[in-house]
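Quick entry between incubations.
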Amino acid sequence: MPVALEVRDLHVRVSGREILRGVDLSVGYGELHAVMGPNGSGKTTLAYTIMGREGYEVMRGDILLDGESIVGLPPHERALRGLYLAFQEPPEIQGVRLSRFLIAVVNKRLGEEDLSRLGDPRLLGRIYKLLGEVGLDRSVLERELYVGFSGGEKKRTEILQALLLEPKVVILDEPDSGLDVDGVRMVARVIKRLRDEGKAVLLITHYARLFNYVEPDQVTVLVNGSVAARGGAELAKRIEEHGYQAIAAPGGDR
Amino acid sequence: MAARRAEYLEAARREPYQHLADSPTVRYYTRWSVFEERLNAPDSRAYPKPPGWLAGASPGLVVLAGEARVSGDLGGLEFEDLGSDYDVLGDIEPQGRLDYYHAARLTRAARIRVPPGLRGARLAVASLGGDGYTGHHLVIEAGEGSEAELVLVDLGGAGGSSIKTLTARVVLRDGAKLVIYSLSRHGSSAVYRRINYTLHGASSLELRALYTPGASSRIVESASLEGTGSSARVEAGAVAWEGEWGDVLFNAVHRAPRSRSSIDGRGAVLDGGGLTLRGVAIVENRAEWSATRVDVRILTLGDRARGNAAPMLEIHTGNVEEAYHSTSISSIGEEELFYMQSRGLSPSEARGLLLEGIASYPGVLERLGLTLGDLRGAANP
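Done. Structure below.
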């Protein structure tokens, strides 16, 4: 499968401290690549750096989308080139109703000048359908973005956008945390669908419970900002059974 | 008549602009100095035409300028021109200099009645400021069991020295339901606006308001919940651009059991602008098992943007169903900006969306088929 996203020898500094120390990984179209690791291992830093967050300084290495470096691009240009990050904890955006936000980001992709006008009424129908698929009520559209949302509503809304915006590469940062069993199944279903549609999926997760429902093609384990192990679904299973200590055990693909 | 006006003018000279205790704190949020500079403005002689977009707002239209004009289908609503000699202070208890000033210099007053039992009536009312001083007063009466929707458009005058005062007494009888979409665009005017709502019986008021202040705007919307089970809901947005200064105060006073009020205000201020949103709810001793919430939030977009938000609850009974207040003043943070950028929006588009979102929050722009950009163009004569 052609490589969609490639991270080469990535060294990243945040607030003067080196967090990522030479990370390499790649994810192809139609592939699910899981990045696992204990708390503080640099998983979210990796996601933010790929997306181009200010203050996440690339000291060395490169990030390539379809073979082209995106390191110098601001986040919105990365998004328009096909990157999507589902946030672990998205911020509250007061005053902006979810419906208006969704219309604006779709309009932006369509090249509309006026971001606030609903150009094609079929968009609403599509949003309603996706709301049903991720288990959200339509009333959520009239609420201010993430203001007063429960943890589950936030996750579902982030997943909804991954489906609505049709990116090339979807980065999911802990999409199952705070979800009940039904929610986890929904996330797994969406991941399968994204993969089947040919998207490249980079799944960042602390736990392996999602893999009960969807099997990763590749697994990379980060510890202290470095790649501690690589493997396939069997590596995730080993971590689930024995914890992150397992990756140091003999037989680990370090 | 002349004697009464002279008496009111004399009182206006004597009275302060505001008494210290008329706000949650004793601070002065209104730029009274702008009013002071313009008090001697001559009566307006020239008025702008009503904006074109107003024509489609409702079947009937009342325009208050130098006189009162009615057009279209009033759909059973009753209109009465009360002239320029109407004694406003019979409707509005004076609270400071500008109330007396308004009563002394009133340009036009009008009454709109929703007959008892009438349902589905819709009317647009435009209060247009002129090139000097303009003063308007409205009496709006919603009869028992009636249901109506009003669009109230309040525009400031042209030029750099215009001043406008607008007051209204709105009375809702038992079971009346009144929805008001209120749009204010004050441009370069100084505008003093004060509207009192009295809710009898199980009446309900829904006020959806968007305010864009002028050089100085003082806006006070006060609901007195007199009837058991009465309810007032306010959803408001406010945007202050450079050189604009607005002080918006909402009051809800619960005087009857099981009354309900909610005040949700969202404001945005750009560089060089100033905006205060205040929400005050008072639950009196007799208003047991009432519910009230006040939530006012301001977003500052620029280092030179000035924002104030203040909620206040005064509860005088031991039994309330709900009493909630919340406030925040924030600037657009790096995290919010990054989030919006991660969805493909440039920083300026993200700021624009936030601004448009706050302006659209009460639903007034949508009701009138406008965008914030349309409003700026249309309301700056």
